[in-house]
Amino acid sequence: MHVCMHNNVCCDLHDIMSACIIMHNMIIEDERVLDAPIEVAREVSSPNLEFVENESDGFQNFMGRFRQIRNAEAHYALRNALIDHLWEEYSNTE
Fold first, then answer.
1. With the CA atoms of 42, 48, 54 and 59 taken in that order, what torsion angle do they form, in degrees rounded to the nearest 10?
2. Which residues lie closer than 8 Å to 21 by C-beta, 6 or more apart?
3. What is the CA radius of gyration of the chain?
4. d(Cα 20, Cα 61) in Å, to the nearest integer?
5. Phi/psi of residue 69, nearest 5 degrees
6. 9 in helix, strand or coil?
7. How far is CA 14 from the centre of its chain?
8. Would you call 29 exposed, middle or buried from its count of C-beta atoms within 10 A (0-12, 13-18, 19+)?
9. Are 3 and 13 in contact (CB under 8 A)?
10. Whole-model pTM?
11. According to the 3-state scheme, what is the secondary structure of 26-41?
12. Would you give per-residue pLDDT tens digits along the chain (94 residues)?
């Protein structure tokens, strides 16, 4: 892929991206504080987890919702109902 610049000079997108990455790294290197203290460890709160003993019920509920969402017949019925509604709502406006 070629990107043509204003003087009819064409450069590869790869060259442009490489130049951007190099400049970004130069800016980061220039802005970093060399005397900054190094943090060895950080305290992180433990996440609240809910353990489920019977996963099959939750999974079956998930799969049921997934099938409803991916149901092509329901999708087309809803799409057509929306088209009909919009057509009735906005086609007769003057």
1. -90
2. none
3. 28
4. 48
5. -65, -40
6. coil
7. 24
8. exposed
9. yes
10. 0.33
11. HHHHHHCCCCCCCCCC
12. 455 555 555 568 888 888 999 999 888 888 877 777 777 777 878 888 777 677 788 888 888 888 888 888 988 999 999 999 999 888 876 5
